[in-house]
Amino acid sequence: MRVGDIGLFSWGELDTQMDHTMTVSKVEYVPSGPPKVSFISHNEDGEYRDLTTVLHVEHTDSQVWISHIP
Predict the structure, then answer these.
(1) How far is 29 from 34, CA to CA, in rounded Å?
(2) How far is residue 31 from each of residues 24, 27, 34, 37, 57, measured CA to CA in Å?
(3) By C-alpha distance, which of 29, 30, 26 is closest to 38?
(4) pTM of the model
(5) Chain segment 18-70, per-residue pLDDT in tens
(6) pLDDT 10s digits, 50-61
(7) How many Å apart are CA 57 and CA 60, to the nearest integer?
(8) What sign does the CA torsion over 45, 50, 55, 60 have?
């Protein structure tokens, strides 16, 4: 995953279809775990919206599909 990739989200509490799009704005590699991925968001006015928080706190039961655009 790289900055500029596109995340297509399905907010689980709403329905099962993709209903939001965000762009990867930061990828931090952590030696003892998985990378920390952040997205830029227009509705929360955030440059670094944490993927884990988005999926497991803000929108429970959600999914994301990441698309890389070369």
Answers:
(1) 7
(2) 20, 13, 8, 14, 24
(3) 26
(4) 0.79
(5) 888 899 999 999 899 989 999 997 766 677 888 888 888 888 888 899 999 88
(6) 888 888 888 888
(7) 6
(8) negative
